[in-house]
Write a structure and sequence with these properties.
The structure is a single chain. The protein has one domain: Thiol Ester Dehydrase, Chain A. The two termini are about 15 Å apart. The chain is globular. It contains four helices and seven strands, in the order ββααβββββαα. Strands 1, 2, 3, 4, 5, 6 and 7 form a seven-stranded antiparallel sheet that branches.
Length: about 160
């Protein structure tokens, strides 16, 4: 797991999470609210791997989700090992969209995909900041111009 270059595109970040009993609802599968938490965990792993978040804190810069669109395709169950993939599908001047997809490691079946729009903001004022500097450079490495192409190209 980690980052994988996609020919002619940017990079894809990948991490695995094993489904445990506390992820499940009364129906024995991952609940929609838990999926959102798992997607967030994968994004934080990506940020931790690629950015100096302590320096961001010291510089007074934060990151916030402003929109989340999730397509639930298949259920995940106890003991499933899932691969979470993340890349940037849109990189604008004030916001960006992180594309995420989740695959069942054993079968490669896509269980979920999501578009997560986020902004950078000033921790002191709460006001948005431009998508610039080190942050833009880091996200640019993961930018794919054709949405959906990254996950398929990084597949097994």
């Amino acid at each position: 797991m980690g980052t994988t270059p996609v020919e002619g595109q940017g990079m894809v970040f990948s991490t695995e999470i094993k489904i445990r009993g506390y992820h499940l609802d009364v129906y024995g599968h991952v609940n929609n609210a838990r999926w959102v938490e798992l997607l967030e965990e994968a994004r934080w792993r990506w940020l931790d791997a690629d950015l100096d978040l302590t320096a961001w804190d010291e510089a007074g810069q934060g990151i916030a989700v402003v929109n989340l669109n999730v397509n639930y395709r298949r259920p995940a169950h106890m003991h499933d090992v899932l691969e979470f993939r993340c890349w940037i599908s849109k990189l604008g001047g004030r916001s960006a969209v992180c594309k995420q997809e989740v695959l069942r490691r054993e079968t490669g079946e896509r269980l979920l995909d999501a578009d997560v729009t986020f902004v950078l903001f000033d921790l002191g004022t709460g006001r948005p900041r431009p998508m610039a500097g080190e942050a833009r450079e880091a996200f640019q490495r993961y930018h794919h111009r054709r949405d959906g192409a990254a996950g398929e190209a990084a597949g097994r």
